[in-house]
Design goal:
alpha/beta, Arc Repressor Mutant, subunit A, Rossmann fold, 35 helices
Length: 898
C-alpha cells in the first residue's frame, strides 16, 4: 500500500486519486465526480486514443448519458484545467473517434487515505431510468416498510408473488431492498431476469442425477445442510411475452419439476406486471397455493417519495432545497402518488444541472422547465447531436419499438431495420445508430434465440416517443390497432371488418403496411360489404385474385357485382371469359349488366367477334346475346355498332335496350303515368260534372235522378279521362326513359303511341262489352285515332313549353295543343268524350243521357257539329292542362325524393 499510486502531477495541476480532488498551485478546483473520473481515465491512458464507447462503458456503465453530455463533460474539464479546444495543451479531440490526453503525467505515490465523510462523494444518488442494484442499497430509500413486510412473508411461504404496474420500481425493490434483507437473514438469493437463457442455465437437468442446480448452491454447504434458496424471477412477464406459446409449456414443466424436487430448500418469488398476474396460474400444479402469498407494490406516497429524493442526496453530500422537494412532489403527484421513474428522471436531471456545484436548487428546477420540461425534452436532448438526415430514422427506430397498444416491443435488430424502410439502403449506418441509442440508454440489447434483440429501456419513454408522430402516422397507428382487433374477431367469430373500419382503411390506402393475411381479410370484407376492392390491394397478388374469382360465385348479387367491378382493370384472357359467362348466364340482371359493361370495355372492338365465334357464347340463345349487347350499348353506344349485326339481332337488341331502360327507370315512369292519369281524371271529373249539371237544369228530375245522372257522368268522365291520360303519360314517360340521350321531343312519339294503344284498347273493349251485354254495335266512340291525335297535340305543346324552361308555359301550351287536336278531330268527324256519350245515347232509346238540350246553348236545333266542336275544345283544354300539371308535379316529386 505504501507504493500505491495516489495521484498525478501535470505542470501546476495535481490529481489526488485517494481523496478525489483536483488542485492547482495549492488551491482546490471543484469538479463533478463523474467528470473527475473521465479526467483520470484519460490521464491514465495518456497518448492513447480513448473512444467515446470506452468512456461510456468505464464511467457510466449503468447510467444513460448522451454524446452531448459527454461533450459537456470534456468542455467543463478543459475549463477546470485551463485547456483550449482549438489549441489543446492537455486534451485533444480526435474527430469522429474520441479523445487523447497529450501530456505525460508524473505519477505520485504514498498519498493519504480519503476522509470518511468523503467516501461517497463520487457516487450518483439517482438512477435515471436504470434500477438500483444490490451495491446501491445504501442509496435506496422510500421502501423500508415494504422491505420488512415482504421479507417476513417470504420467510414463511412456499412461493411468493410481487406484482405492480409498470414503473412501480419492482426491479429496484428486489435488487437494492429485498435481496440485501434476505441475505441478512441467511438466505441465498439468485435473481433471474433473462428469459429463456437463464431458465436453461438454471433449471435444465445436469448430467448428475443428484441435483439439477448444484452449480448454484454455495460451495461450502453439504447436500443435507444447504441454505434455503430464494429464486427471484424478475420481470417475469417477459416469460409469457418473449417465449412462444408452443415452447412455453416445456419451461413450465421444467420449473415445476424443480420446485417439486427442491421444495424444502427452494422458494420461488415471481415479480410480474399486474396485467399478467393471472398468467402465473400455469404453476398451480407445482405450487397449489401460488396466489395465496402475494404483495402489490404501489407507487410512492408523498412521504416515501420525499425520502427517495432527500436521503440519497445526503448520502453523497449533495445539498437540496426543501422548497424544491415539495415542488417536485406537487408536480409529479397524481392522487397523492408518485411514479418512481418520473422521480428518478427529474432528480437525475437536477443533479447534473450544475456539475461543479453539488446542490439541487429551485432556480435550476425552473431553468429546466420543471418536471414536465425535464420529461418532455429529455429525448430531444439525446437527438441533438444527430444530423437532420439521421433524426427521422432515429425516431422511427424508437417508434417501431412501441406497439399499437402503446406497449414496449422486443424486436430483432433485423425486424426493426425491415419495419423502417424509409431510407435507401446505405443512406445511413443503421448499426451505428442502434449502438449509439444503446449507449445513450434509450434502448438496450438482449440476447434471444441466438440473435440480438432490442427494446426500450423503460415504458416511461413511450409517451415522449409517441409525441413525435405526425398526424398521419397517428391515424395509421389507430387504423392498425382497429385492424388488429378486426383480425382477432374474424379468427374467433368469423366476423368481417365493419364498414366504418373499412372506410378508414381505404382512406389510409397503401400507406398502411399489411401482411398477406391482412390483405385477404380486407378484400373479403370489402366484397362482403359490397365495396369495390382498390387496385393497391390487388396489385401483383395472385391470392387476392383467387378471392375475387371465388366471390363471383357468391350467392349474394351485391358481392358478385363488387367482385366484377374490382376485376375491371385487370388484364387476363381467362378472366375475360369468366366475365363473359356471367354476362350471359347470371340469373340476376344487375350482375349481368355489370359484367356486360366490363366485357364491352375490356374486349372492344372484339365484342362482335366474341359473340359470334367464342365458345363461351356457343350455347347462348339470341335473346341472351341481345341482352348482353343491349347492356353494353346502353352504357356506351360506341362499343356496339349495330351495322355489324344481323337484322334479327338488331331488332332484338333494340327491344332489349328499350326494356332495359324502362326497367331501370320504372319507378319514375310509373309515377309519371299515374300522375298524368290523375290529372286527366280530374279533367274528366270536371267535364262530367259540367255536363250533368247542365242536363238536369234543362229537365225536370227528382233529386235522386239528378244525383244519379251527375254521378254516372262524373264516373264516366273520370274513367275515360284517367285511362286516356294514363296511356298518353305512360307513352311520354317511357319514350323519355328510352331516349334519354336524345331529343326530348321523342316524347311526342311516345305520347302518340301511348294514346293510340290505349285509345284502341278502350274502343275495342267498349264495343265488345256493349255488343256482349246489349247486342248493340257502336263504332262511333273514341278510339285509337282520337288517342293518337290528342297525344300529339298535348305532347307537342308540353315539350315546346319545357324547351323554354317555363313550367307554366308548358301547361298552357299543352292545354292549347290538346284543344287544337280536339277541334281538329271534331272537324274530321272524330269523337271525344261528349260525342261518344251522344253516340251511346242514340243507341239506347231509354237512355237518360240525352245531350240534345245542350244544342240550344250553342244555337243549334240538335246536337250537331258546333256543339261537338265547342265541347271538344273544352274537353281538350281541360285534358291537356290537367295532364301536364300532373306530369310536372311528378317531376318535382321525383327531384325532391332524389
Amino acid at each position: 500500500m505504501d507504493n500505491a499510486l495516489s495521484g498525478y502531477q501535470i505542470d501546476d495541476l495535481f490529481i489526488d486519486l485517494r481523496n478525489r480532488r483536483l488542485w492547482r498551485n495549492g488551491r482546490e478546483i471543484r469538479l463533478n465526480s463523474k467528470y473527475f473520473d473521465v479526467l483520470v481515465f484519460l490521464v491514465s491512458h495518456n497518448n492513447q486514443l480513448v473512444s467515446r464507447d470506452q468512456l461510456f462503458e468505464q464511467i457510466w456503465p449503468d447510467v444513460i448519458v448522451t454524446d452531448t453530455a459527454l461533450n459537456q463533460s470534456i468542455k467543463d474539464i478543459r475549463k477546470a484545467i485551463g485547456d483550449n479546444a482549438k489549441n489543446p495543451r492537455y486534451i485533444k479531440t480526435v474527430p469522429k473517434h474520441g479523445f487523447m490526453f497529450i501530456q505525460e503525467p508524473v505519477g505520485v505515490r504514498n498519498g493519504s487515505e480519503p476522509a470518511p465523510e468523503e467516501k461517497d462523494v463520487h457516487r450518483r444518488p439517482y438512477k435515471f431510468l436504470d434500477y438500483f442494484r444490490e451495491e446501491d442499497c445504501d442509496l435506496f430509500f422510500g421502501r423500508e416498510t415494504e422491505i420488512k413486510l415482504v421479507t417476513s412473508k417470504i420467510v414463511g411461504a412456499d412461493s411468493f408473488i410481487i406484482y405492480g404496474r409498470s414503473g412501480a420500481g419492482k426491479s429496484s425493490f428486489i435488487h437494492a431492498g429485498l435481496t440485501p434483507a434476505l441475505k441478512a437473514k441467511g438466505y441465498c438469493v439468485t435473481i433471474l431476469r433473462n428469459y429463456p437463457e437463464h431458465l436453461r442455465e438454471v433449471f435444465a437437468p445436469s448430467d448428475s442425477e443428484s441435483d439439477v442446480s448444484s452449480s448454484l448452491l454455495p460451495a461450502h454447504t453439504e447436500p443435507d445442510s444447504r441454505q434455503t434458496q430464494v429464486f427471484i424471477f424478475d420481470q417475469f412477464e417477459e416469460f409469457f411475452m418473449s417465449i412462444p406459446a408452443s415452447d412455453r409449456q416445456n419451461y413450465v414443466v421444467l420449473i415445476q419439476n424443480f420446485i417439486k424436487k427442491h421444495r424444502h430448500i427452494f422458494i420461488p418469488v415471481f415479480v410480474v406486471r399486474e396485467d399478467v398476474f393471472a398468467e402465473l396460474s400455469v404453476f398451480k400444479a407445482a405450487v397449489p397455493d401460488v396466489f395465496h402469498h402475494e404483495f402489490r407494490l404501489e407507487r410512492l406516497d408523498r412521504d416515501r417519495a420525499r425520502d427517495a429524493i432527500i436521503k440519497p442526496a445526503w448520502r453523497v453530500n449533495c445539498r437540496i432545497e426543501a422548497s424544491l422537494v415539495e415542488s417536485i412532489l406537487d408536480d409529479l403527484s397524481e392522487n397523492d402518488k408518485i411514479d418512481p421513474p418520473q422521480l428518478q428522471i427529474v432528480c437525475d436531471a437536477l443533479y447534473d444541472k450544475n456539475p461543479g456545484d453539488p446542490a439541487m436548487t429551485m432556480e435550476a428546477y425552473r431553468e429546466l422547465g420543471g418536471a414536465s420540461g425535464i420529461l418532455q425534452y429529455y429525448l430531444q436532448r439525446v437527438l441533438e447531436h444527430y444530423s437532420a438526415r439521421e433524426i427521422p430514422i432515429i425516431k422511427n427506430i424508437l417508434l417501431s419499438l412501441v406497439s399499437d397498444s402503446e406497449q414496449r416491443l422486443v424486436l430483432p435488430v433485423e425486424e426493426i431495420e425491415r419495419r423502417i424502410q424509409l431510407f435507401p439502403q446505405g443512406a445511413v449506418n443503421f448499426s451505428k445508430l442502434i449502438t449509439e441509442l444503446a449507449h445513450a440508454r434509450i434502448i438496450r440489447f438482449r440476447r434471444r434465440d441466438g440473435g440480438t434483440w432490442v427494446e426500450l429501456t423503460h415504458d416511461f419513454l413511450i409517451p415522449e416517443i409517441l409525441r413525435w408522430q405526425e398526424p398521419e402516422l397517428i391515424e395509421i397507428r389507430r387504423v392498425r390497432s382497429l385492424l388488429n382487433r378486426s383480425v382477432e374477431n374474424y379468427h374467433a367469430h368469423r366476423l368481417y371488418i365493419d364498414q366504418e373500419v373499412l372506410d378508414l382503411l381505404l382512406s389510409i390506402g397503401d400507406k398502411l403496411p399489411l401482411s398477406s393475411d391482412d390483405r385477404s381479410l380486407i378484400v373479403k370484407s370489402l366484397l362482403q360489404r359490397e365495396n369495390e376492392v382498390p387496385q393497391w390491394l390487388l396489385r401483383q397478388n395472385p391470392e387476392m385474385l383467387a378471392i375475387l374469382k371465388e366471390s363471383l360465385g357468391d350467392e349474394k348479387s351485391g358481392v358478385r357485382i363488387a367482385a366484377l367491378r374490382s376485376l375491371r382493370p385487370l388484364q387476363d384472357e381467362e378472366l375475360d371469359r369468366l366475365v363473359c359467362r356471367i354476362a350471359v348466364n347470371d340469373p340476376d340482371m344487375a350482375v349481368r349488366k355489370t359484367a356486360s359493361i366490363i366485357l364491352g370495355r375490356k374486349i372492344y372492338p372484339e365484342t362482335h367477334r366474341w359473340l359470334s365465334e367464342d365458345q363461351t357464347f356457343s350455347g347462348a340463345g339470341l335473346l341472351k346475346k341481345a341482352f348482353t349487347l343491349a347492356f353494353i350499348r346502353d352504357y356506351d353506344r360506341e362499343l356496339i355498332k349495330l351495322r355489324l349485326l344481323s337484322l334479327p339481332m338488331i331488332l332484338t337488341v333494340m327491344l332489349s335496350l328499350m326494356w332495359i331502360r324502362i326497367r331501370r327507370q320504372k319507378a319514375e315512369v310509373w309515377r309519371k303515368a299515374v300522375a298524368g292519369a290523375a290529372g286527366a281524371g280530374v279533367s274528366g271529373l270536371l267535364m262530367g260534372l259540367t255536363l250533368g249539371i247542365i242536363l238536369i237544369s234543362f229537365r225536370e228530375s227528382t233529386g235522386y235522378e239528378a244525383f244519379t245522372l251527375i254521378t254516372v257522368l262524373s264516373s264516366l268522365g273520370v274513367l275515360s279521362g284517367s285511362v286516356a291520360g294514363f296511356g298518353v303519360s305512360l307513352g311520354m314517360a317511357a319514350s323519355h326513359a328510352i331516349s334519354f340521350r336524345h331529343s326530348p321531343f321523342w316524347g311526342i312519339a311516345g305520347a302518340v303511341a301511348g294514346g293510340f294503344i290505349i285509345g284502341g284498347l278502350a274502343h275495342i273493349l267498349g264495343v265488345d262489352i256493349l255488343r256482349a251485354i246489349f247486342g248493340q254495335n257502336l263504332n262511333q266512340i273514341a278510339g285509337a285515332y282520337e288517342g293518337a291525335v290528342i297525344g300529339l297535340g298535348l305532347s307537342a305543346g308540353y315539350y315546346l313549353g319545357l324547351s323554354h324552361k317555363n313550367k307554366r308555359l308548358a301547361i298552357l301550351l299543352a292545354a292549347l295543343g290538346s284543344m287544337m287536336a280536339a277541334v281538329l278531330l271534331t272537324i274530321v268527324q272524330g269523337n271525344l268524350f261528349s260525342a261518344s256519350l251522344d253516340a251511346v245515347a242514340h243507341s239506347f232509346s231509354q237512355s237518360q243521357i240525352d245531350l240534345q238540350p245542350l244544342a240550344g246553348m250553342f244555337g243549334e236545333s240538335h246536337f250537331g257539329r258546333i256543339s261537338r266542336l265547342i265541347l271538344g275544345a273544352v274537353e281538350g283544354t281541360l285534358f291537356g292542362g290537367f295532364l301536364a300539371t300532373g306530369l310536372l308535379w311528378s317531376e318535382k316529386s321525383i327531384q325532391n325524393s332524389a
